[in-house]
Amino acid sequence: MRHPFLKGFLSIILLILLIDSSYTYYYKINELSANDGVFKDFRESILFHNTQLLWKRQYYKGQQHKNNPFLRLKMAYYTVKKGDTLNNITRRLYLDTDTLISLNALSSPYDIYEGKEILIPNMRGIIHEIKQTTHLRSLSARYQIPDAILYSINKLKDEELYQGQKLFIPYKKLSKQHKQYFSRGIFLLPVSGRLTSGFGLRIDPFNNRWTFHGGVDIAAKTGTLVHASQAGQVIFSGYMGGYGKLIIVRHKYGYNTFYGHLSKRLYRKGHWVRKGQVIGKVGSTGRCTGPHLHFEIRRFNLRKNPLKFTHF
Q1: Which long-range contacts (CB under 8 A, 24 or more apart) does 178-181 make?
Q2: Which of 201, 185, 190 is nearest to 228 (CA)?
């Protein structure tokens, strides 16, 4: 069972992913049915925007957008019910999967589960995070959307955009590469061996108590080559407590991979590595019972089950 504090914390994280919450309107969808007034209103709004391509029609007529009620971004909470999937939620709302993946920072189809709170917008689109200070015009040119539309939808106060700011980009889709990260199999299994401990609750071999295991353990002989699961930059290479000799690689879209209990580390912090490149060797350093690789996948520092991202 998920702790209620964790559920609330994740909801707050979702809010942070959005545009300035002071300028966004929040509602609650209780069921994906026309009997639910908010669901009905949102679906009609999404369908209207999808069919009318409102911003293009008005832009080329020279109309102003800053006070256009049709371009007001609204958000609704929905608590996932038993049997819900990403595809059936988007299908009922006339949304696309890219919208919910981006808006809710979903890492895989398994991130949709009973009891999870997700955010639903009243139009299709994706979240864009500003990497460095820029002007609204540059974002407008990149996405081929009038700057007045972006200004209106995101309720901006200034056309100067700052690092870390998140904007909603209407009617745009995720890159092919981002979608591949969402699909299972984008990460390589880093070592050949035998799975000895899975992800989740297990009996701790040192104290015989139930504890949470945040990765998977793959048994292999000392010195077996360990490969980078995906291309990225080494952000840690050293000794870390129970992990022993550890390498952490940062990848795109908020992912990090951890390679623990190594006998040898082949790269230092700051180095870039390719997918499949040898980065270390299996060992038994740190808190472990024998030679194996402890492998973790995290997204935004939340541990994910590696078996859902690799082909074991």
Answers
A1: 178/252, 178/253, 179/98, 179/101, 181/107, 181/252, 181/253, 181/255
A2: 190
Residues in the chain: 312
63 pLDDT above the threshold of 70:
no
303-to-176, 254, 299 alpha-carbon distances in Å:
24, 12, 7
Q: Which of 244, 243, 239, 222 is nearest to 290 (CA)?
A: 222
What is the average pLDDT across 119-142?
93
Helix, coil or strand: residue 237? strand
Q: Is 24 left (phi over 0), alpha (psi -120 to 50) or beta?
A: beta
**What single-letter DSSP state applies at residue 22?**
G
Domain ranges of the chain: 4-182, 194-308
How far apart are alpha carbons 191 and 146 in whole angstroms?
49
Using one digit for the tens of pLDDT, what is the confidence trace for 237-292?
999 999 999 999 999 888 999 999 999 999 999 999 999 999 999 999 999 999 99
What superfamily does domain 194-308 belong to in CATH? Answer: Glucose Permease (Domain IIA) (2.70.70.10)
For 146-173, how does the pLDDT look when each residue is reduced to its tens digit (9 = 90+)?
Answer: 888 888 888 888 899 999 899 999 989 9
Q: How confident is the model at residue 7, as a pLDDT?
A: 45
The SS3 of residue 11 is helix
> What per-residue confidence (pLDDT) applies to 22?
41
Instruction: Show the tokens assigned to 77.
Output: 């909470």
Residue with tokens 């998920």: 2
Q: 217 with 200: CB under 8 angstroms?
A: no
Burial of 166 (0-12, 13-18, 19+ CB in 10 A): middle
DSSP state of 283: B
Q: Find where tokens 């939808």 sit.
A: 153
Q: Are strands 216-219 and 194-197 parallel, antiparallel or unpaired?
A: antiparallel
Instruction: Give the bridge partners for 244, in sequence order.
Output: 240
Q: Give this prediction's pTM.
A: 0.69
Helix, strand, or coil (residue 227): strand
Report the C-alpha gap between 222 and 288 in whole angstroms. Answer: 13
Mean pLDDT for all residues in the chain: 86
